Amino acid sequence: MQLAILFFVMCFSSLGFSWAQNNTFMTPFEKKSNTSASYAEVVQFYEQLNESFKTIQLTEAGSSDSGFPIHTVIFSKDEDFDRESIRKKGKVVLFINNAIHPGEPCGVDATMMLLRDFATKKDQLDYLDNVVIVAIPFYNIGGGLNRGSFSRANQQGPEAYGFRGNAQNLDLNRDFIKCDSRNAQTFNRVFTYWQPDVFIDNHTSNGADYQYTMTLIATQHNKLAPSLAGYLNRSLLPALYDDMEKGGWEMVPYVYARDIPDNGIAAFLDLPRYSSGYAALFNTLSFMPETHMLKPFEDRVKSTYAFMEVMVKHLHHGYRNLQQARKDAIAEMKMAKAIDLNWELDADDFDTIKFKGYEASYKPSKVSGIDRLYYDRDKPFEKEISYFNSYKPSLTVNKPVAYIFPQAYQDVVERLQWNGVVVKRLERDSDVPVEMYKIVDFKTRDHYEGHYLHSNVDVEKLAQNWLYRKGDYLVLLNQFSDNYIVNALEPHAPDSFFAWNFFDGILMQKEYFSPYVFEDLADAFLKSNPDVKVDLEDKKAVDPEFAKSAYQQLNFIYKRSPWYEKTYRLYPVGRVMSDKDLPEIMDE
Ligand SMILES: [Zn+2]
Asked: What is the pTM of this model?
């Protein structure tokens, strides 16, 4: 109760100004607290703000799968909406995304109130001297239009909300690299255009029950350049946790537990397919506030508002330190000789944190009779639990000077360009010394977000010359997006374009041999290649199955012969390792 009163004073007391002037600046949530604004209401609300306040600009930023445009709302105290000019003035950019999961809409309503309050409350406006806010008010429009009251079975309100899948039934929070949706294509372009310093993607959690309304996923710090990780861990995160507690919304790291939280929680590894992992590739500090599904919608919206407000205040005070850390991080990433592509949890490295939970217990299920888990809200506790927040790199590659690949891969080049990557084209056919990968092994997952995602990709490196054609693509490193480029183009990275099936053509052999015809060729080949004959005999000696199979022996020879296709499982993206090997490129 006390918390609610405190929040009322904090957020609503001076809203009388706008309400008195024009009741239309009230959000549906403020009119009825278990209500979340529909997509149409959101657009209408921002259209009104856009017309009424020079500090707010509503723009159609690009298309979505639903057919409706994705908007951005920019809040700039100077009434300056030009990116270059904003950068020149030394302001930081806070980028906010809402309704990627429209069933988790707290951010939609909280952002409407936040931007309205910044426009109408003079004391709030001071916090935006050095901060420009760019918000996507409603990202998954298709999901938002698919509105109902049942798709979040375990969630407390709001009365009506959208669905997780977008118009193509994709989870947009897996789509940041593969970009199957037009939503993600728009997002990639808008995000890399603004190159924000901080990113917030608003969500609501699933999982265990505990006392907190707000939990937080911050970018996994081990994935960041040291300067940025230092700023996050030593300055920004402690300030966010402190200020949220002071405002009555004590937070805890996102409760990611193997079983009940008492046994410890782990930091979430936000791979680039997820919003925060994607943003981290561009040295943007990212946060996913995850309000707790079992808390009233009203509290979830208010705590989301509080989190964004606290963030703005901290950026107002600390923007110079953040800018320096980010500038250093971009330089560190450009200079880095090697890039980490995957990580594993360090089970030996953990902190002890305070946790306010509810006692978990088991009782017979009324449905199955089998023991079921429940959290007893009459038995709250506060205890110390282990927090595993350290990941060790499990895959690191050295950075090439450039990547080079055939123009056949148009889908790849499009995605690079949506992300602001500078792509050059070859002036003429060129025989280029490159490192290439043979795909030795991989696992494939069934039906995952419109793909058959590859993982555990094992590669063998080949140093060879390869003929690339006039017009093929060359991507020089030493760009602001180096980390994105390497993560997307190294085939063994967990969210590479290879993993997402953009190169699956190479995974199937196209030509074979007829054994009865190949017999004579194989015989002649063995006579002129005695080393292959030795290998064949060695294998026959140790492998009885092989020794009994005429076909296996012919295939063994075929694979070592000139008739075997060189391109089978050869990943066509070459790594140019030295400046002197760079082919000539076309003039712009
Ligand atoms: Zn979510």
From this structure: 0.93
